[in-house]
Write a structure and sequence with these properties.
alpha+beta, 8-stranded mixed beta sheet, 11 strands, 33% helix
């Protein structure tokens, strides 16, 4: 017992040297984190057992990159926005890591919405007789860059009439995403919408992106305010971009506007009548690459081993200001590099004035704790 107490005291001292403060708040156990690691451990155990049993083959396990995680986040936000409008999930595709389609039904308005995730819109020649495809391209030959594959295709249906929406997710700032909106509108309108077999109207094309640090999450249109998705002169087609955030979902205004637009087009009787029945066929010819090369597990016949590559973080203005302040305080460059997890050459560039010459040093009170820092072996 005394040995355990001494070990805890040493660990507490090391954590204090790293700048970890003391808090009296209750610790909140996140069961999702525990369950995720338990599932991964169990998966890797059985995979390694299978490889060793048959004595051949290789198995890779990994995790999605940030752009794909952002797609998953946008997928969940779209579904939550529909559920907030009274829609209930009625069907879903059996696919991993996420469902390739989710179908929702509104009991009161009788509108059905089908969300296709990362599915190709192929030509009629590639569809079997008994297959159901909500949107079919009339092109006979496969385009040079492959069939059209939006991140999200939302199909609205009611009383045999239907219309659809294209949404793409871009893990980038809205300044860059604004350029992608016009490019996507040109791509889908010119090359796809004009070649659809059933003549369904494209109601909206949008890009979901990240908000800049000084912006609030919201929806913006590339058209004038009167012609925007929520304007008074709702056009037959419109497009825009949407700043996403976990705290304030911009889709909470987009999805209701899309529903109202579909109902307005129904009242104007300008939609084509087509029968929509059946479960969409999964249309992804190539499996997604879910492996992150920076951190991956590799299982061979001889057993299980892990290869990990480390990438140093990018030095920002805020980090450079702290580095300059720590240098003025007298900290050693190697201690500074260890604290921020960067290469020592980056500290030398800042010290010589080669980089970040206009950045002012951080004040003494806002600097990290002074080194040297305890080695990681003390925590093992």
């Amino acid at each position: 017992m005394y040995e355990l107490a001494d070990s805890l005291n040493v660990m507490a001292s090391n954590l204090k040297n790293l700048g970890v403060g003391i808090s009296m708040r209750a610790f909140l156990r996140d069961s999702r984190y525990v369950e995720m690691h338990e599932d991964l451990d169990e998966l890797e155990f059985w995979l390694s057992a299978v490889v060793q049993k048959f004595g051949k083959g290789e198995v890779w396990t990994g995790q999605p990159d940030l752009s794909q995680l952002f797609e998953f986040f946008c997928y969940s936000q779209i579904i939550q926005a529909f559920e907030a409008e009274g829609f209930v999930v009625s069907e879903r595709g059996s696919d991993l890591p996420v469902h390739y389609f989710v179908r929702l039904q509104n009991p009161s308005s009788k509108i059905r919405a089908t969300i296709l995730y990362d599915q190709e819109i192929v030509g009629a020649d590639e569809i079997n007789e008994n297959d159901y495809a909500p949107i079919v391209c009339s092109l006979k030959n496969r385009p040079a860059n492959g069939w059209f594959r939006p991140d999200f295709t939302i199909i609205f249906e009611k009383d045999g009439y239907s219309g659809f929406v294209f949404l793409d997710s871009k893990y980038q700032s809205h300044q860059k995403a604004r350029k992608a909106v016009s490019a996507l509108a040109t791509k889908y309108l010119t090359n796809l919408v004009g070649n659809l077999k059933d003549g369904k109207p494209c109601m909206y094309i949008g890009v979901m992106c990240l908000p800049d640090s000084n912006e609030k999450p919201e929806s913006k249109s590339q058209m004038s305010e009167e012609l925007s998705i929520g304007g008074n002169m709702e056009p037959y087609f419109s497009h825009g971009y949407h700043l996403m955030s976990a705290k304030n979902n911009a889709l909470s205004s987009l999805i209701p506007n899309l529903i109202n637009k579909f109902e307005g087009l129904l009242e104007q009787k300008i939609l084509d009548r087509t029968e929509q029945n059946g479960v969409p066929v999964r249309r992804v010819p190539e499996p997604r690459n879910l492996i992150v090369k920076a951190k991956q597990n590799f299982i061979r016949e001889k057993g299980y081993s892990r290869y990990t590559k480390h990438f140093a973080p990018t030095v920002t203005n805020e980090m450079a200001a702290k580095i300059k302040g720590m240098l003025l305080r007298g900290d050693k460059p190697q201690d500074i590099a260890l604290y921020f997890g960067i290469n020592g050459g980056r500290v030398s560039e800042i010290k010589s004035g080669e980089k970040f010459s206009t950045v002012q040093p951080e004040t003494y009170n806002n600097l990290p704790p002074e080194g040297p820092y305890p080695p990681l072996s003390n925590f093992i």
